[in-house]
Amino acid sequence: MELLSGGEMLVRALHEAGVEYIYGYPGGSLLHIYDAVYKQSAVKHVLVRHEQAAAHMADGYARATGKAGVVMVTSGPGATNTITGIATAFTDSIPMVVISGQVMSHLVGDDAFQETDMLGVSRPVVKHSFSVRRPEEIPELIAKAFYIANTGRPGPVLIDIPKDMTMPNERYEYVYPKKVKLRSYTPPQRGHSGQIKKAVELLLAAKRPVVYSGGGVIIDGSSDKLRALVDRLDFPCTSTLMGLGGYPGTGERFLGMLGMHGTYEANVVMHHADVILAVGARFDDRVTNATNKFCPDAKIIHIDIDPSSISKTITADVPIVGPVGTVLDEMTALLDEAGETPDADALASWWKQINDWRPRHGMRYEKNDNGLMKPQEVIEALWTATKGDAYVTSDVGQHQMFAAQYYKFDKPNRWINSGGLGTMGFGFPAAMGVKMNFPDHEVVCVTGEGSIQMNIQEMSTCLQYGIPVKIICLNNGSLGMVRQWQDMNYEGRHSNSYMKSLPDFVKLAAAYGHVGIQVKSRDELPQALDDALNKYKDRLVFLDVAVDPEEHVYPMQVPLGSMRDMWLSKTERT
Amino acid sequence: MMRHIISILLENEPGALSRVVGLFAQRGYNIETLTVAPTEDPTLSRLTMTTHCDDRKIEQITKQLNKLIEVVKLVDLSEGQHIERELMLIKVKAVGAQRAEIKRTADIFRGQIVDVSPCVYTIQLTGATDKLEAFIDAIGSAAVLETVRTGVSGISRGEKVLSL
Ligand SMILES: Cc1ncc(C[n+]2csc(CCOP(=O)(O)OP(=O)(O)O)c2C)c(N)n1
Ligand SMILES: [Mg+2]
Question: Does domain B2-80 have CATH number 3.60.10.10?
């Protein structure tokens, strides 16, 4: 029988849960735990410069690997600093375990120094949370936290630990549970067979089908299954912002992203479809546009592991609650069994129609002859320079949409962005979390001069741990997405969307011990990218790329319209 | 808009109730009544809440509640035959001739006078919500000094049970 202190039990249990890195920041309530961290080497700790970044790092790690990321922060301000990061993970269903220190149990409720009710503050943005009441229960709570975070619809789980639960001189028997069981939590293992059968019948009878694929496909690791199904049925496939890479971005059957800034063809195909197969997507308002005008002719099959996502905004005709992978397996088996294929003539004329729609907008943009580059061309050049195979994280704004539209992701887990919460400041720390775990892969953060400043202090962390991510800052000198809305809806009154006092990013990168390169024109870009990726392979490189501030993101759905109502340029509407 | 009686078996743990209540606040659902107490199994609480909403909303509410880890089982009692009761303690002004009249009214409603002072009766009454309201109407609001109600508790009729 082994006796360990609470702090030692915590670190040991994290190791048994498969944790390699803790992203965190110390403080009074955590000192016993940090001492336990110091005395071992199995679990490594990464010291960030701001707790929000710790959460985004863990999140980036989770999105790239599919495993829960771990955050550890002290009570009070340390804990509250992570809220944006926890909420970001929660909205995008990302597994995360957050350990927050707490004041001594006997002080809880007394407004003690650095006491906040972290369980209360975090409640709306966690999947679940625990407070440690006895040191002996630490291993079990850790095991439960990982189980809940990783299964079903994943999400962040918080464990709040009062300091007296981790006293170094109080030792207890350490038992890590072999299996976790919770009587009140049973994530679905498979979909309802009757419903799946109905879905397959509907797919076989479809004349104008489309597959609408979402982040659930990525989270479930089911993109191979999705690809196989789409290809055997010869159906067109579109993807949400969160689902990019689920189906290959360069694939013939891929229509591009759908929704607010989706492609013309994806949105028009959705509008005219007679059968929509929604896979791990949740009919978000940035996808559907006005729900009362959404896809008037479509019968909807909706696969999702979370029953509350089904028929929430759009009523499903065939709801299927279950993990995407097992449901797709069953569909494929039923198709094999039936030995039927969809109506070939109908499908051929549907494809003809789709191919007529494709060139209407075709993601065209006009380059400036001389003058500033367009942001789109930078993304295209990045795609070429990285052979379309980088991990790309992004922040939030126009640059995010350009990255989503123009970097064609052929693999899942490669596109990492805050889709649901839209958190500026996410991209850089997320990239760090990815790079630490995939040191041999190219990891690029596409950002804006606004967003990058929300977590720019992490350049210091990158120096400490040698994290050579590449930052591509599409510098339009303004909060571009805000400015675009002001151009479109407020007669160009740019209220507080202009950044008059930007730092010299090149010098700033150098001050942090990294490489900064400024790119002012098109001819400088290929060399700069090559230097960033090759010459400075093992360094963090900050590419400050000047782009046209007047550019808008198109297509853009017209508010309160249907899926197919879009602006295609500043002057052209569907 | 229909009245729903949602009955929940909940892990009897600190914080569980705040998650249920928080969910309602956070998602803009409205709680009309709420009662909660431990069951014969001390690890479980039984919670009953009533709310008025349309079909789409109640579907979301029950799905969201079911997602809470501490919610073990849930039933919407208003979907089937059920019994519902509420307990009310009510203090009414009782002087002179009114005293006999109030006593008679309480008897009709099967209420019990549980405390008496020279000018005040305290009456205990159980029943469905509309019965309690009918009693207040019968007494006349001018005579009512104070009311306290437990909120609705409910259980299904017949063999159906909500248990592990
Ligand atoms: C934390 C946070 N604050 C505010 C916003 C609102 N917002 C969305 S995009 C945007 C502008 C982003 O500017 P920049 O990073 O320069 O990107 P650009 O749109 O110029 O490419 C703002 C302020 C947000 N998404 N996140
Ligand atoms: Mg900008």
Answer: no
